[in-house]
Design brief:
Elements: H1 2-14, H2 19-27, H3 31-45, E1 51-58, E2 64-73, E3 76-83, H4 85-91, H5 94-109, E4 112-118, H6 119-124, H7 126-141, H8 155-167, H9 173-180, H10 184-197, E5 200-205, E6 210-215, H11 217-224
Parallel strand pairs: 3-4
Antiparallel strand pairs: 1-2, 2-3, 5-6
């Protein structure tokens, strides 16, 4: 599921790029960024909407900065950087150090919110990074980002979220019945409550009743708490 969505995401961007922008996408978007997407972003968010790789930002030097990953969802712009300690430690020079600070200052001046993740943390503590992403989106976008409620979620509803996230596709009431060993009416009531809480949403409907559901960003956040 991830690989297919990832390839479609890269292909879609490549069709709108040319010149240096296309070269950056094809050559500089590499292992570290893909690992972050696979281990952190995808499990937490579940899609690549509003997200761009190697986004170009013109700078004051008559050239451009290219951001590892950019989440551009009005009214905010997020720059997500994945830093490899060994690479940065080996290659940094005084000029490079100055360049990095100038780059960050310009992004801040232009209302970018810059977040940096180390590659080691992505590898060793992906869940911590997932929670960081969800907290950030929740803080910025409120109910459309993540849910901030601290109230406990009942066990069966939490299990439904776990199943939906694991399947990485829509979930039907019949599947909930089988997985939890409950009746159809009970399963539908639980799913309806999750929809009302904003943790799931209707994915498709028949003439009279909803036939399938998908987990929302809020739901992913609650499961990761």
């Amino acid at each position: 599921m991830f690989q297919e969505a990832y390839e479609q995401w890269i292909t879609k961007q490549s069709k709108t790029r040319k010149g240096e922008s296309l070269r950056k996408l094809m050559e500089d978007h590499g292992h570290s960024e893909k690992l972050f997407l696979q281990e952190v972003w995808w499990p937490a968010v579940g899609n690549f909407q509003y997200l761009f790789a190697e986004h170009e930002v013109p700078n004051y030097r008559n050239s451009s900065y290219y951001l590892d990953l950019s989440y551009i969802r009005p009214p905010y712009k997020l720059d997500l950087e994945i830093d490899d300690f060994s690479t940065h430690a080996k290659n940094i020079t005084r000029r490079g150090f100055d360049y990095e600070k100038e780059r960050q200052n310009q992004l801040t001046d232009e209302d970018w919110k810059v977040y940096r993740f180390t590659l080691d943390t992505v590898k060793e503590k992906p869940r911590h990074c997932q929670q960081s992403i969800l907290r950030t989106l929740g803080k910025l976008y409120g109910v459309n980002g993540v849910d901030q409620s601290n109230s406990p979620l009942p066990l069966k509803q939490r299990e439904i979220l776990r199943i939906a996230i694991r399947l990485e596709r829509t979930l039907t009431p019949a599947e909930v019945c089988i997985q939890l060993g409950i009746g159809n009416r009970h399963a539908r009531n639980l799913l309806h409550e999750l929809v009302e809480l904003g943790y799931m949403e209707n994915a498709g409907s028949g003439a009279q009743r909803t036939r399938s559901y998908r987990v929302t960003l809020n739901g992913r956040s609650r499961f990761l708490e």
